[in-house]
């Protein structure tokens, strides 16, 4: 593991009433080169074209693929992700979004904050996620 993950937990234990399975931590201690990502939305990084889907799962896959691509382009790996902030326009999408996000952070244990917001920059976007990663010294 690239960083010290303090008080690791899984959301299936924290939220037993929800069908979640995300590896998270209460804190991450990291030293190295910090990568701050802009909030990622369900659009192509090269063309800024939205994906065609209004499904929260498909939108989350694109968002997480963008995060992975950007972290790797900056010289990092997903295991270097230390923090995620998830913005949802509808709390009813939470489980689907978090389950999908969990596929990309299995074993990573970043810290994570989730917010429900009135809207995102485009009305068709259901989810936006910003990330911070630290490439170890």
UniProtKB/TrEMBL annotation:
CDD domains xref list: YjgF_YER057c_UK114_family (cd00448)
Bilayer-spanning residue ranges: none
InterPro entries: RutC-like_sf (IPR035959), YjgF/YER057c/UK114 (IPR006175)
Similarity-based family: Belongs to the RutC family.
Record's protein name: RidA family protein
Organism: Paragemmobacter ruber
């Amino acid at each position: 593991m690239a960083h010290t993950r303090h008080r690791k937990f899984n959301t299936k234990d924290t939220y037993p009433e929800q069908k979640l399975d995300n590896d998270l931590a209460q804190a991450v201690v990291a030293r190295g080169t910090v990568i701050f990502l802009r909030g990622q939305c369900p659009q192509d990084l090269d063309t800024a074209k939205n994906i065609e889907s209004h499904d929260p799962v498909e939108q989350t896959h694109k968002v997480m693929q963008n995060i992975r691509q950007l972290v790797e382009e900056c010289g990092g790996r997903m295991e270097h992700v230390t923090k995620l902030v998830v913005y949802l326009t509808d709390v009813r999408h939470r489980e689907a979004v978090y389950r999908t996000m969990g596929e990309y952070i299995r074993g990573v244990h970043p810290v994570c904050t989730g917010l429900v917001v009135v809207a995102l920059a485009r009305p068709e976007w259901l989810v936006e996620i910003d990330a911070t990663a630290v490439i170890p010294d």
